[in-house]
Amino acid sequence: LKWRRRPSTLLQFKTTKSDPPYFPFPPHGTFPAMTEALFGIKGKDFVIIAADAQTAFSVIKLKDDYDKIWEVEGKLFAASGPTADASNFVEFIEKNIRLHTLRTGLPLTTKAAANFTRNELAQSLRSRGSYQVDMLIGGMDADGPGLYYLDYLSSMEKVNKAAHGYGAMFTFGLMDRYWKPDLELEEAKDIIRKCIKEIEVRFVIDLGKYICKVVDKNGTRLEEL
User: Fold this and answer.
1) 78: which residues sit within 8 A by CB, 6+ positions away?
2) Cα(51)–Cα(66) distance, rounded to whole angstroms?
3) What is the per-residue pLDDT for 145?
4) 105 CB-near residues (< 8 Å, 6+ apart)
5) Residue 49 pLDDT > 60
6) pLDDT of 106-115, one tens digit each?
7) Which end of the chain has fewer CB atoms surrounding its CB within 10 Å, N or C?
8) Rounded CA gap, 8 and 23, in Å?
9) Taking Cα atoms as reference points, which of 160, 113, 159, 152 lies closest to residue 135?
């Protein structure tokens, strides 16, 4: 890359044929999103996911009632990141999972849905149109509940509890302290409330209200904290 000065005194890049593709600005969403908090907990026979309801652009709050948890074929998909990326990617995944069900007559398990999502995220990462999305996927299958953690680099892991965003920095210790294998719904809700309280006390930004949803053998539903 060679430097070239223009009359505006701004430094510009001049590329040659041998240079790799140059992007004048970092891809959108590569900077950490300060106004994000997703929590997921796997219980005895359910998965509970909570997310803040705020969207922002730079330092400007745009909405405080945005639902970041999608209900897809009886599963919960929570996504954080740039709003356009999150909504576009989850809707793309939702339509493809629905198409698979219509073609085969068989719904995907939570593990299969998570692996399909991870594969699409990995493919987009190797293109110019990568999605800057962190996700939690929860569902209920014949062998019990499942919670999967995915980040924007397409890493995936099956976990018992998870969090995304700056809110995660203050809450992993609480989840480790209070989680147990036979967790009941009210106990899981109490852990979520503790996490939200911790963020309210220690985080410099007020994330406002939260939306909470549960998936179990009866399907998905909105849950009051």
Assistant:
1) 38, 40, 49, 51, 68, 69, 70, 135, 136, 137, 138, 164
2) 10
3) 94
4) none
5) yes
6) 999 999 999 9
7) N
8) 20
9) 152
Q: What is the pLDDT of residue 24?
A: 40
Among all chains, which residue has been given the structure tokens 């109490």?
Answer: 190
Residue with token string 């904290």: 225
H helix runs in 24-109, sequence order: 83-104
Calpha distance 139→46 (Å, rounded): 8
Reported as a pLDDT band with limits 50, 70 and 90, residue 6 is very low
At 195, which helix (H) or strand (E)? helix 185-202
Q: Residue 34: which pLDDT band, with cuts at 50, 70 and 90?
A: low
Length of the chain, please?
Answer: 225
Helix (H, G, I), strand (E, B) or coil at 70: strand
Residue type, 135: M
Residues whose CB is less than 8 angstroms from the CB of residue 17 and which lie 6 or more positions away in sequence, other chains included: none
Query: What pLDDT does 96 receive?
Result: 95
Q: Please say whether the dihedral angle defined by the alpha carbons of residues 125, 129, 135 and 140, taken in this order, is positive or negative.
A: negative
Angle between helix axes 83-104 and 110-125 (nearest 10 degrees) is: 130
What are the tokens at 55? 């969207």
